[in-house]
Amino acid sequence: PCFPPCSRMKETSGWQQVFSSPRLDWVIERVALNAKVLGGSLGDHDKMVAVASCSEIILWALQADGNGSEIGVFVLGVPVEALFFVGNQLIATSHTGKIGVWNAVTKHWQIQDVVPINSYDAAGTFLLLGCNNGSIYYVDVQKFPLRMKDNDLLVTELYRDPSEDAVTALSVYLT
Hints:
Layout: E1 5-10, E2 14-20, E3 30-34, E4 47-53, E5 56-62, E6 68-75, E7 82-86, E8 89-94, E9 98-103, E10 108-113, E11 117-123, E12 126-131, E13 135-140, E14 156-160
Antiparallel strand pairs: 1-2, 3-4, 4-5, 5-6, 7-8, 8-9, 9-10, 11-12, 12-13, 13-14
C-alpha cells in the first residue's frame, strides 16, 4: 500500500507536504509531476501528479490550498514504461508500441498503436518517438489532432532511416 505525497520547498519554513493520495493497493512504478499549468482548463495555478503501475495510471489535480481531486484512472493496456507531461498533456508510452495521451482541454484519453518505441523526447508541444523501424514520429499534443476517418491520434512520420536502423536515442533542442 502506498500514499504518494507531494511536497513543496519554502525558503522560510523548509519542506511542507501539500498532498497525499488516497491509499493505493499497488506499487508505484512511475511518477509524473506537472508543476505549473499555464492557461490550462484547470486554472493558471493548478499542478498535476500522475502515478502508474503496470498498465494503470491515476491522475490528480492539486490546488493551491493543498487539496487534490482525482481527474481519472486510465489504462494503457500494456505496461507503462514512461510517464511524463508535455505542456498540460499527460503522456504514457510503452516499448510495445502504444502511447496514451490525456488532453487537459478536452479531458479525453486516447490510446494509439504505433511501431515499437525505443526512445522519446519532447520539443515544445511536440512529442517525438524514436522507433525500432528507423522512423521518428511526432504528435502535436497541444492540438491533439485526431484523424477524421477513424478518430485515431494523428501520428506523423518525420524521418525514416533508409537502412531501418532503430532510433535508440533522441535529443531535441528548439531555439
